[in-house]
Amino acid sequence: MKKLMCYCLVLFACSLGYAQSLVGAWEATMEKDGRTLRNVVMFSASHQVATSYDAETGAFVGTNGGSWSLADNSLTETVEFDFKQPERVGTTSSFEIVLTENELKLKGADTVWKRLDDGSPGDLDGAWLISGRMRDGEIQKRDTNRPRKTMKILSGTRFQWIAYNTETKEFMGTGGGTYTTVDGKYTEHIEFFSRDNARVGASLEFNYELKEGDWHHSGLSSKGKPIYEVWSLR
Q: Disulfide check for 176: which of 128, 160, 190, 210 has CB 3.0–4.6 Å away?
């Protein structure tokens, strides 16, 4: 009996390790209509986002994502948002992948995704939903189960926020790029922004602190207004 239990634990550990090897950020580039598109996909432990934008100008092309799971080499995704095809929201699909330590591809496809990071070195790797804001000196909580969501997915070096509604399938906006967490300072370097290309190239610095598992985020917004937000892991 003990041998059987040990064997099962080994199998579980191996499968968990394989699933976790997807966690982090991956990149592929492609040429289309005379320009180079940068395609980045990020996997947290439970959610993923894939985004395409012009590698030179940062002009936004599209994004989609949702929850994911991996069984052997079969990747299953349930769509929560899709900029180009909102009708896909709520649907689930599975496809086979070929995965090595530093390369990822769909079985039978030519595009190869190269690993950018494995969830480190940044402190905020994961999928986060905004769960509160400071108003009049008090933190007002927000229901993260409602259809209207603002999510941030971060790998070890990259971030992306997405605003969407799973009930109406509406997509409101997104932006992302790279980030660092150093000495209590969270700094974003924007590489794409769906609402305004003029934001591309900007850097924003905030204070951050992890309290009881929540991410407390404060400073000045891109418009110079004070903000204090609380984000909770999914």
A: 160
